[in-house]
Amino acid sequence: MAKLNLNNVRKSYGKVPVIHGVSIDIEDGEFVTLVGPSGCGKSTLLRMIAGLEPITGGEISIGDRIVNDLAPRDRDIAMVFQSYALYPHKNVADNMGYALKLAKRPQQEIERRVNEAAEVLDLTPLLGRKPAQLSGGQRQRVAMGRAIVRDPKVFLFDEPLSNLDAKLRVAMRAEIKELQHRLKTTTVYVTHDQIEAMTMADRIVVMRAGIVEQVGRPLELYDSPSNVFVASFMGSPAMNLITGSVAEEAGKFEFVSEGGARLPLDGSVPAKRRDKLVLGVRPEHISLVDAGTVNSFTSKVVVTEPTGAETLISSRIGSTEIVVAVRDRFEVAMGDEAQFAFNFERLHYFDAENGQRLS
Amino acid sequence: MSASQADPVPETKKSGSVLDERSKFMLGRVLTYGILVLAVVLIVFPMYWMISISLKLPREIYRTPSLWPQVFTLENYRILIADKGFLRPILNSLLVSTVVTVISVLISSFAAYSMVRFRYRFKGVIGRIILFAYLTPTSLLFIPLSILMARLQLGNSLHGLILVYLTFSLPLSTWLLQGYFRGVPRELEEQGMIDGLSRLGALLRIVLPLSAPGIAAVSIFTFTGAWNELLLALVLVTSETERTAPLALNYLITSDVLPWGPLMAGAVISSVPLMVLYFIAQHFMVQGLTAGSVKG
Predict the structure, then answer these.
(1) Rounded to an integer, what distance in angstroms lies between the CA atom of residue A281 and that of residue A345?
(2) What homologous superfamily is domain A240-351 in, according to CATH?
């Protein structure tokens, strides 16, 4: 167990920079996810921590030791690959014990630790099998087991669940979280799935194009995203973002969208950039109300998508399509007009020019 | 299940042709085996002929070509080994082929690994040059090579022969191994390095074992190439003690006299090491060794 510090870490392939100075301090025992769209550099960053990719600039330290120039084997880390990377010519027990064997630990100790890990992950009956004889979920567990057998300073996960089917993924998600909580090993977990990031992490690092966009606790990111990218990336269905301006008339505020739709607002509108800003509102912070309610607006329903737990209503505000999530069952037909209202306390405002949060 | 049971079972149509399904199946079988037997005969008969001639007396060889020797004799083998000293060339051939194979596999493993895993300048060009070197015909190179070997004081020696054979075997071995190494997922090596191996260790303990079919194929190819090679040996080796097996067989022929008995006995003896090698290597050539390592 150890702290993990990244200090202005950079990476270029030839002249092309891919990581532009990332600094993150990860506490001892913390579970941090790196999340972002494909190609944002999250896997590269993880591989740099592992020592599989050389570092162009900056400093990575594990514990209090700078590991920039250490080989992967000297960093005391364990990694779980997306493809699991099990040695096909070794059985499950040998796969799990290989690192200990290379570290020249006594055979008895290797057996004991492999058996313990197998017990934890329900792999005991499979110890004698070869990877080819295992199902996807079982291979994933072996890869996990191989990591925990070593009791390393840091766990690194590179999208370990993306090859599993949806149901298994949800189950493994909880299992990994529980396991990490029990072992209290510092963990860096890379995923492109924001739900995985939200549900598992103590803290989330949102990345885009080699830059850290925001670092924070899951709900912090959800409730106050620092820019348009984080706002649209975290949450499913995504936050509605409407570009427009704010008009004030006799102390009453209105949002005028680009398509000309007028939406009532309250006084919490930020003072600056009123001429061009982005209004952000999550689907669950818009509600269906009765006609005639104050501070409501009318809009045409384009599509309704009932998912059981909630119903997603697509509607059009000016030129922007918005999604509204309602918990109650409303019988609204496509093409009908409906009355909506914002939850004013949950509105977000961003600068339309640079995408940064205004309030 | 219940749904399909409820469906009416479609009636099997009586085929209008003269042959029913079973006869068609049998005919297919007969044809398949017929063609296979033909292929086996084509391959095995020359070998049988070689062995049978090596066991015949000269008068039987030259007069009546019979399928089966009327009198079995080991006289041809005695002449070959005792009178012509054929064991020496066999040993020379074994030495040359083994050394060429071992060195070839070693060097080409490293070369292929570097081509597959590392990034460096001119990699593509080097790869193409390697293939190009293989495509150059031997007959175009034997004179420059013999001059080169003479200058290096390696003419008329097995060392020189080994060096020359390596120049032909290395490009192909490197090329072949690249393909096999590419098939080993990079993550496996990386996992190995995280588990405690150095890069060299990962190559030796993970990549090479998983490329066993490739190593076996390359070994067979190189060994067979060196074992059967005649042209370069003919040019480079002059003294009797340094002759390889094909060369020694060639020297059994004096002007227009072909001593078929001893020649065929030599061919039989020369075939044995190759047969043993193929038998062993076949065991390693089982494909699909990396199955289950990573999810594709």
Answers:
(1) 10
(2) Nucleic acid-binding proteins (2.40.50.140)
Strand partners, A157: A80, A189
DSSP state of A124: G
- Please provide residue A153's backbone torsions phi and psi, each rounded to the nearest 5 degrees: -75, -35
Alpha helix (H) residue ranges in chain B: 2-6, 21-54, 58-62, 75-78, 87-117, 123-135, 138-151, 158-182, 186-195, 199-202, 208-210, 212-228, 231-236, 245-252, 260-284
> CATH 2.40.50.140 region(s) of chain A?
240-351
Q: What is the CATH number of domain B79-284?
A: 1.10.3720.10
Per-residue pLDDT tens digits of chain A, which is 359 residues long: 689 999 999 999 888 999 999 999 999 999 999 999 998 999 999 999 999 999 999 999 999 899 999 999 999 999 999 999 999 989 999 999 999 999 999 999 999 999 999 998 889 999 999 999 999 889 999 999 999 998 899 999 999 998 888 888 898 899 899 999 989 999 999 999 999 999 999 999 999 999 999 999 999 999 999 999 999 999 889 999 999 998 888 778 889 888 888 888 887 788 777 788 999 999 999 998 888 888 888 888 999 888 888 889 999 888 889 999 988 777 778 888 889 999 988 999 999 888 899 86
Q: For chain B, what's the residue count? A: 296
Helix (H, G, I), strand (E, B) or coil at A36: coil
Q: Which of A72, A102, A132 sits opposite B292 (nearest CB)?
A: A132
Are residues A88 and B294 in contact, defined by beta-carbon separation less than 8 angstroms?
Answer: no
Which two tokens mark B165? 């054979």
Residue A55 CA to chain centroid, in angstroms? 24
Cα(A83)–Cα(A163) distance, integer angstroms: 7
Residues making up chain A, counted from first to last: 359
Which chain B residues have a beta carbon less than 8 Å from that of A97?
none
**A73 in contact with chain B, both atoms CB, cutoff 8 A:** yes
Structure tokens, A338? 């409906």
CA distances from A281 to A214, A225, A253 (A): 19, 11, 16
How far apart are the C-alpha atoms of B46 and A230, rounded to whole Å? 76
| Residue A246: its H or E element | strand A240-249
Per the CB < 8 A criterion, the answer to whether A210 and A41 are in contact is yes
Residue of B nearest to A129 (CA): B292
In whole angstroms, what is the distance from residue B283 CA to residue B270 CA?
Answer: 22
Spell out which residues of chain B touch residue A136, defining contact as CB-CB under 8 Å.
295
Say if the Cβ atoms of A88 and B193 lie within 8 Å: no
CA of residue A92 relative to chain centroid, distance = 31
Alpha-carbon distance B121 to nearest alpha carbon in chain A (angstroms): 11
* Separation in Å, CA of A134 to nearest CA in chain B: 8
From CA B182, how far away is CA B119, in angstroms rounded?
14
Enter the ipTM: 0.84
Q: Rounded to whole angstroms, how far apart are CA atoms B175 and B133?
A: 11
Query: What is the Rg, in whole angstroms, of the alpha carbon atoms belonging to chain B?
Result: 27
In sequence order, the β-bridge partners of residue A66 are: A61
- Going by CATH, does the domain composed of A4-233 fall within 3.40.50.970? no
- Given an 8 Å threshold on Cβ–Cβ distance, is A84 in contact with B193? no
Q: What are the residue boundaries of the structural domains of chain B, listed by start?
A: 20-73, 79-284
Contacts of A1 (CB under 8 A, 6+ apart): A28, A29, A153, A184, A185, A186
Note whether A189 and A31 are within 8 A (CB).
yes
The shortest CB-CB distance from A81 to any of B187, B197, B292 is to B187
CA distances from A9 to A23, A212, B56 (A): 6, 11, 81
Residue A355, SS3 per DSSP: coil
